[in-house]
Fold this protein.
Amino acid sequence: MLLTVDVGNTRSTWMAHPDLSASWDSRPRFVHGDKGLQQPEDPAALRAWLDSVAAAGGQLLHAAVAPRRAAELLSLAREAGVAHVVGVGDAALRLDLANLCREPERVGKDRLLAASEARARFGGAAIAVDVGTAITVDAVDETGAFRGGAIAPGPRLLARALRSETELLPEVALRAVPAERGRDTQSAIELSLFHGTAGMIDRLIAIVGQDLAPRGVLLCGGYAPVLSAALSTAHVRERDVIHRALVRLHRASGA
């Protein structure tokens, strides 16, 4: 059994791949905890899911932006009988991008994987936009070099910061709203959160992609379904981008 896990800042998403030719929507998945929804992690539920997909003896591919939490989760996987645990950058799971950032070791694996998947999708220079706890907009050029990009707070962090740093402003959730003036406090915040975030993403795509002539923009992340319609930049929206990249790189390695 091949398993993948994307350990993010808000949640960890697990997928099982019993048949690599099956549609992605049909593959078993499990979301372990969700800070945004205030759902705590449940190790017993994760262990039950791993048992249900026959993880014992299988191989787990992982990408993490939260290393300490990832270490705990990988330990749970080993306890469930997973035989091989492979991380991005290991000999058996090498990235197909050259990292040209000044501090390449500090670039998040999620950013690199999303950029790799964008390049694979469009066949050349591309932009990857991941809208989650943080918003990342990253570029890969025609030669397969990761050229860096931009990082910004995601919608939930923006809304929470506005609430925590003021006395009277409420915390609101991201939702699609009309492009018209807010007529009360909540609608004014909702306007900025939705259209302001979309406008910021459009502007960052233009800056990050300058001089690269990107062939396409790949949009992913938990907030992508809501924000997609508000973006002016043409793009392709995709689910499970990190998992897709992990499986593709695994298959390319011949393991």
Q: What stands out?
A: The chain is about 35% helix and 20% strand. The chain has a mean pLDDT of 94.
